[in-house]
Amino acid sequence: MHDLGPSFDALPAASGPLDVAIGQRLAAQGFCLLDADALGALCAMPADALAPALPSWDALPADAYLKDGGRYRRRRHGSFVLEPLPGGALLVQAPHRAHFQPLDYNALHGGMVRWYEPLDEAMLALPGWRALLSGLGTVFARRRGVSRWFVEAHQFRIDTTDGVGRPTPEGAHRDGVDFVAVVLAQRHAIRGGESRVFELDGARGVRFTLQQPGSAVLLDDTRVIHETTPIQPLHADEAGWRDTLVLTFRAGGFLDPPA
After folding, report:
1. Gene3D superfamilies this protein is in (predicted)?
2. Rounded distance, CA 80 to CA 156, Å?
3. Going by CATH, does the domain composed of 18-250 fall within 3.40.449.10?
């Protein structure tokens, strides 16, 4: 696999003005890796901001919509409207709504109106929750010149209940939004889970594995496609899992099914 560019290593916190460096990488290659300290610095929050909510991943409901019959995915979902402002942002939680993707973006589960349980208070009450969404929304707004984002938050656990867990059973895809942030909460007793990012209209791509809790990959969904390889248990007698928080940012409104 060819590299998209020379800067696919994780951007550390000590990289000068972070918003500028992130914008440059997104402009140059359509994605940017951040270690936990860099994400924390960007969003003015601790590097371990998700740690207090880790027990909430243990209580995620099963995803009842998997078409491959698997039992390996658990999730919750929430929607927000974010308006970046000088020195901060206005964040409002939207009424709970279904998740929808057209078939053009998700050939396996697209075209379905999928209702998931809402994010619980353990997540929404995190001191860093507003800072995380606001920090990311602000840096994305500078790239796109957008004054309002429609944000969907997906709390995922992929586990090895079936022996193999598939973070992206639909394969390499776009989400139909402007930007995507995948934040690793934790990995436990697994191998695999390699992230792959490819040019939308080309053959070049990169591969890497998010290992550090709090690290993230930011994606320009209009320029790249992405996938994550299956996970398997590291030990035959021990369950394994991969916990992530996926945030999507879209201008112009949420994705809705055709009227």
Report:
1. q2cbj1_9rhob like domain (2.60.120.620)
2. 17
3. no
